[in-house]
Amino acid sequence: MNPKYENLLAGKNETIRALWAAVFIGFGLAVIMGVGWMLAPNQLRIHVPPDLSSGAVLRPDEAGQSNVYAFTYYIWQQLYRWPKDGETDYEDRIHMLRHYLTPGCFQDRLDDFTTRRQRRELNGRERAVWEIPGRGFSPERVVSLGNGSWRVYLDLLIEETMLGEPIKTRAVNYPLSVVRYNIDPEHNAFGMAIDCLADTPMAIELSETQEQLL
Fold first, then answer.
1. pLDDT band for position 95 (cuts 50, 70, 90)
2. Do residues 125 and 162 make contact, with C-beta atoms less than 8 angstroms apart?
3. Mean pLDDT of all residues in the chain?
């Protein structure tokens, strides 16, 4: 055979082999991408810090200290906000927020409601709870215990009234347990739950400046 034709045939065969190699590589990449697509989560939970003025590194399903504190404060405040009558409001709040409480904490709050009602501590009482000025979030108020659990310290002012008349005002430090909570995002988008009190709440003595701000 003419050497010229032999070179052409060899070149053609080399081109065919290269094309087949490209086909196999493309097929392999398509399979890998398809498997990755099937295994990818349908939803990602991103915790965005309240303050982004200095930027933030966001990782899926990783809650920062400020996020944990904000979640805990909001849920605990709403649990004890009784705008009309504690006898009905407290129980309603417990059930309304049950997806943000662990099962044990949910039952603990129901027991607390029953005890308070039997002692007549709820009938006709209205309650408001808010953060004490100057005692809001700081990194030392959120202690990571590892394995997706935290201890959060809230300094709150509690004001109770009856028929519009103040009957009790007190400042209290609440040490609360908070845990990562795998639940349907439709019920709890935060992926966290309060596991109730980590220790006995303690009364707080306020400074004159703080009292003037209240």
1. very high
2. yes
3. 82
Higher pLDDT among residues 140 and 10, named by residue:
140
- Tokens encoding 93: 């709040």
- With 0-12 CB in 10 A as exposed, 13-18 as middle and 19+ as buried, what is 25? exposed
How buried is 159 (Cβ within 10 angstroms: 0-12 exposed, 13-18 middle, 19+ buried)? Answer: middle
Say if residue 110 is exposed, middle or buried (CB neighbours under 10 Å; 0-12, 13-18, 19+): middle
- How far apart (Å, rounded) are the C-alpha atoms in residues 117 and 176? 23
Question: 163 — alpha (psi -120 to 50), left (phi > 0) or beta?
Answer: left
Alpha carbon distance 50, 180 (integer Å): 19
Nearest CA to 178 among 153, 151, 199?
A: 151
Cα 199 from chain centre: 21
Measure the N-to-C terminal CA separation of the chain; round to a whole number of Å: 103
